[in-house]
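ligand=dicarbonimidic diamide
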Amino acid sequence: MTTIAIKARPYGFEAPTGKLGLIVIDMQRDFLEPGGFGAALGNDVSQLAPSIAATATLLAAARKAGLPVIHTRELHSPDLADCPPAKRRRGGGSLRIGDEGPMGRILVAGEPGGEIVPEVAPLPGEVVIDKPGKGAFHATGLDSVLRNLGITHLLFAGVTTEVCVQTTMREANDRGYEGLLVEEATASYFPEFKKAAIEMIVAQGGIVGWAAPLAAVTAALETV
Ligand code: C5J
């Protein structure tokens, strides 16, 4: 069996060809644009902007290499039945989940703010997982989807690094997947949290997984 080898930290990441997928977490207007959930919590959304172009580059390389691509969206049903009251109460911002904002109801399915930004939008045939939690495995069919696709290794991109991305990497790790975070293709409202999250992932011999620069990942995907 051939492998895709990526120069990574804490050591080289090797994925069997055909078993590597890309998961792009929550690249939604509600997190990336003014007027959404992230901004309502008092965050500077411009901090996330550089991750859009990097994720677009990564997506292009993954699609060219034939990797399955999975997108996630943090969303709740319009009746908010899947939103724990504790989650809705949290934050104390001007707008809460379900409230009407400039891009429609915050983090509600079917509203403009819940859509993925056009630069990294899913292509027809790519899986989109809507998730009510921070982790993409919680209360979703993601694990079945990955197993049905035969995926054992995952590249991770998306926002925000220390919340939904890191939570999902940890969930994947506990389920036996091997995960690598693509550094430029993720971002946090707090650059120091992004840096710390990456260090937490690769510390202790890769206790959560691997991390690598975008160029190392695209170079490896070129070899497929
Ligand atoms: C947050 C996410 N930050 N996608 N969600 O609430 O990271």
